[in-house]
Design goal:
globular, 407 residues, TPR-like_helical_dom_sf
């Protein structure tokens, strides 16, 4: 576009280009491009993607410097840059600075929008308490430039929930329900989650049924939300009903949905139901992910079916390159103790490499494996080398075990 004769880049074009530079080449080149912009109109358009990038990276210093420069140029005329700053302060636990941003908006006669008020209410709830948040809400009600919708009422309800004011939270959520859209399920998801925080199953199910009246296909994310909430309240019968409803209508078997019910079964000691569900998901074309194997590993360890647990852990490990999952220390210790008790050297050797390569090593794990090798009169050079590389310090018991290999 820039190389075409007679073509002139608009301010919006510059903003789009700056955003693309951030994604492709990083902030440094984007900052240089911003400095070279030809006029204030272009800078006004491009400042928001640059500021948003600082917010995403939690770079408060650069964001504040940019806001200062924009203010000097008289470019702070909309609420969007101020909202970005408030989001940054909330994300960096500096909620007390949000009212200062609001004060600056008022000084510059910048109107507040719905997001401005929502962030302000949340910040006041965190810093000053319920009464302060309510004052902001009243100010919003009296502001003719904005309209109170479900998102603001949801924000206020969250303040009440954190303060354990159940009756007030419930009343506000009921009012929020009246303002939900007939075209979008997003608000339903938020309110369902908040009813779960109040342990209000009736509210969850009422909103869930109401959400079905919204046009369009109900997504897996919607089902995951309501399933998680019902499971949180301990109602597995209702969870099973909702799951079957999803299963009967799903086009592609999303394993994330079944994982929620699978985890509930395992946490409640229902390993037979968990195994049955797992087999059913495979039959329906579900593809287990690392979470599936993590849940099954935990379930089989609890039920002392260690062969299945080890197999599940192996399968989960294959996926570790693509996720951050790390098995718990209790699971790893249970397996180490199993190897020690049964002298399973083939799996134990794999296990040693596994815990070492992924930085999961601990002194109790290595001690168990040392005892196993000592009992079988097998050398433990590999274990000792891994302990050294993992910088595991020996205690007296470990030192005694090591000396026993030389005896």
């Amino acid at each position: 576009m820039e190389t075409q004769n007679g073509f002139r880049m608009s301010p919006v074009d510059h903003a789009v280009k700056l955003e693309s530079i951030i994604r492709l080449h990083g902030l440094r080149e984007a900052e240089e491009y911003f400095k070279r912009l030809p006029n204030t109109a272009s800078r006004k358009a491009a400042c928001l993607p640059l500021l948003h990038a600082y917010v995403e990276r939690r770079d408060t210093e650069k964001a504040e410097v940019l806001m200062y420069k924009l203010n000097e140029l008289g470019l702070l005329v909309t609420p969007h840059p101020f909202n970005e700053m408030m989001k940054l302060y909330m994300a960096t636990s500096r909620c007390e600075k949000v009212p200062l941003v609001i004060h600056e908006m008022k000084q510059n006669n910048v109107p507040r929008n719905v997001l401005s008020y929502n962030i302000w209410i949340s910040a006041c709830g965190e810093v000053s308490g319920v009464a302060s948040a309510e004052m902001v809400y009243k100010e919003m009600v009296n502001d003719k430039n904005v309209q109170v919708g479900w998102s603001t009422l949801s924000t206020l309800a969250n303040v009440y929930i954190k303060a354990r004011l159940v009756d007030k939270a419930t009343l506000v959520l009921r009012n929020a329900e009246k303002k939900l859209s007939n075209c979008n399920r997003l608000g339903y998801v938020f309110l369902i989650t908040q009813y779960a925080s109040l342990s209000d199953k009736e509210g969850i199910l009422r909103l869930w049924e109401a959400s079905k009246e919204v046009g369009g296909r109900i997504t897996c994310v919607n089902y995951m939300c309501v399933l998680s909430c019902v499971v949180k309240l301990g109602d597995l019968v209702e969870a099973e009903r909702i799951f079957l409803e999803w299963e009967s209508s799903c086009r592609n078997y999303d394993i994330r949905v079944s994982n929620i019910l699978l985890g509930a079964y395992v946490r409640n000691g229902m390993i037979d139901e968990a195994e049955s569900l797992h087999l059913r998901t495979l039959e329906r074309g579900g593809c287990p992910n690392y979470k599936t194997w993590e849940i099954l590993t935990e379930g089989w360890v609890k039920s002392q079916n260690m062969d299945k647990a080890i197999s599940a852990l192996r399968k989960g490990c294959v996926m570790l390159k693509h996720c951050d999952w790390r098995p718990s220390h209790d699971i790893l210790m249970a397996m180490a103790e199993y190897f020690e008790k049964h002298g399973n050297f083939e799996d134990a050797n794999w296990f040693i490499r596994f815990i070492h390569q992924r930085g999961l090593a601990s002194l109790p794990l290595f001690k168990s494996l040392l005892r196993m090798h000592l009992s079988a009169k097998r050398p433990a050079f590999d274990i000792l080398e891994m302990m050294e590389k993992s910088k595991i310090e020996m205690d007296d018991e470990t030192s005694a075990l090591v000396q026993a290999f030389d005896a």
